Amino acid sequence: EDLLGLRLKHNLNILQATSYFGAEVILKYLANFLVLDDETKKELIEYREPNGGNMAIHFAVLKGNKRIIDFLLNDFHADPYVVTTNGLSVIHCAAQFERGVLSIEMFSDKE
Question: Can you give the pTM of this predicted structure?
Fold first, then answer.
């Protein structure tokens, strides 16, 4: 419950913040800590920040960090097809920033 209730600046949850800032050590810890807790993983991965409805996968592709994206897809079962509440796909989000372009190749076959 503490993990779910923790909201950082801009109402990001811990999974979104680690994805955005590239905190791989923390993300790996979370994956190991929650390895048998699918319900909490689902709640964390499906949380949408209130401003644009971005999820952790959207924040991860902005930075183009393949390891973070792999954690989200494989360990947290992020949906590669999910769109923000503004209708942006992961590729749209990736295209917004220079580093995000590194993510486009990973998702181009998923849309």
Answer: 0.83
